[in-house]
Design goal:
Blueprint lengths: L4 E4 L5 E5 L4 E5 L12 E5 L7 E7 L5 H7 L12 E5 L5 H10 L4 E5 L3 H5 L1
Length: 120
C-alpha cells in the first residue's frame, strides 16, 4: 500500500505495517495463497532487486493471540524454529499465523477435538 512501511515487532516472526491504521503481519510461507481470505501485503525485497516479500495481515478481532500481542503481551514463547502444540485450533486462523511465525524450521501440531470445526 502507498504510504506504509513494514518493520519487525519485538516478537520475532511478527511484523507491523505502519500506515493510517497499524496492522500485525506474518511472513506468508506460501506466497500467493491465503488461509481464511485475509488480506496480503507485498513490499519490495531489499535483498533481491525486482522481487517482493509477501505478508499476511493478522486481524486481532479474529485471533486472541493477535489481540494479546496488540495489547502488549510480554512474550509469546515461540520464536522461529520452535515446535508448538496448539490446542483448540478451530478453523485454523491463528494456527496459520503461528505456523508463519515458527517458519519452515519450526513445527506446529494443531489439535481440535470439537466435531463442529471439522464439519464447518
Amino acid at each position: 500500500r502507498g504510504g506504509s512501511t513494514v518493520e519487525p515487532h519485538r516478537h520475532e516472526g511478527v511484523l507491523i505495517q505502519r500506515a493510517k491504521d497499524d496492522s500485525l503481519l506474518t511472513l506468508n510461507l506460501v506466497p500467493g495463497e491465503t488461509v481464511y481470505g485475509e488480506k496480503k501485503v507485498q513490499v519490495d525485497n531489499p535483498d533481491e532487486a525486482g522481487t517482493k516479500i509477501e505478508y499476511r495481515i493478522w486481524n486481532p478481532f479474529r485471533s486472541k493471540l493477535a489481540a494479546g500481542i496488540m495489547n502488549g503481551l510480554e512474550n509469546i514463547h515461540m520464536p522461529p524454529g520452535t515446535r508448538v502444540i496448539y490446542l483448540g485450533a478451530a478453523s485454523g486462523t491463528t494456527v496459520s499465523h503461528v505456523s508463519d511465525i515458527v517458519g519452515p524450521k519450526g513445527l506446529v501440531y494443531a489439535v481440535e477435538f470439537s466435531p463442529r470445526s471439522g464439519r464447518d
